[in-house]
Write a structure and sequence with these properties.
The complex is a heterodimer of chains A (155) and B (169). Chain A is α/β, with parallel strands linked by helices and 155 residues long. Chain A is 50% helix and 17% strand. In chain A, strands 1, 2, 3, 4 and 5 form a five-stranded parallel sheet that branches. Helix content of chain B is 20%, strand content 31%. In chain B, the strands form three sheets. Chain B has a three-stranded antiparallel sheet with strand order 1-9-8, with no helix packed on it. In chain B, strands 2-3-4 form a three-stranded antiparallel sheet, with no helix packed on it. Classes of the chains: A alpha/beta (155), B alpha+beta (169).
Amino acid sequence: MKWVPTDIETFAKSPEYVDTAVIPLLPVSFDESIKESATMAEFTTLLTSQLERQLQGRILLIPGFSYLKAKKQEALNVLVQWEQEMLDKHFKHVFFVTSEYDWKQHEASLKGTLLWIPSLPLQHMDEKSRVSVMEDQVRQLMNLFIQKWREQESV
Amino acid sequence: MSENRVSRRQFLNYTLLGVGGFMAAGMVMPMARFAIDPVLKANAGGDYVATKLKVAEITTEPQRVDFTFDQVDAWYESEVTGTAWVYKNENGEIIALSPVCKHLGCTVDWNADESNPNRFFCPCHMGLYEKDGANVPGTPPLAPLDVYPHQEKDGILYLGSKANPREGA
């Protein structure tokens, strides 16, 4: 489900089925890494929206979490609060999706699952390969989700 | 010349007739247009989209078919990719099922769960559907999968751009 009123209405009707929140982490910077940040943000946004299409019945896609790349520590502090709020309120699983490798070293501070997917230069691909590449990525990501859900159900 | 002279009375008659005619036409035309409008309207949802699948290639095993069409949403037009599971049933009829789970809209997959072979499986909440799209009782979905209308033209499979709920279910 997306963060739009129609989806949220469905969510409000049957919240017991939606136990997973997905937060795309979108870097913003204005130095020499500006282009890289944009690529990462685009890729992450696209990937999570495709993922949402496939698994929309169980995940709620939170609006992208944009942060200043240079202020990672501050971003992390805020993110921890977001996560806590979501876990307290309703969700059993929280997933963070990012293309920026730096987040990996902060993984321990987060309770949820951090998924790092290296971004691909989509702008250099033609439409067809773009779609098939995205599909492969989404399929891999989906399996991670399903695996996580299974783990919890078998406990 | 002089015999053909138009009298003042005749001239006024013609003028009135002409103007009156225009006015009457102005009133009747829109009404006529409204009256026949349903006939002129493009058949809503009746647009068929060509897939890349040849009818001869359809087997009894469901296969994934992607097709793209343009969709206009208010002010912007986007290319939408539709997906269908297509197969021939034992009577040789073509069935095109929508992959959208009737529970909460996840995408179902054919034969994806080891413990439930030859069924459509929804990974979100373990929903199951039989091959014909009927929901398996005891799993979350409450209705059978939607069915795409289909057509065959020049050996190519055409699918409707909108799946409809199965009748009599």
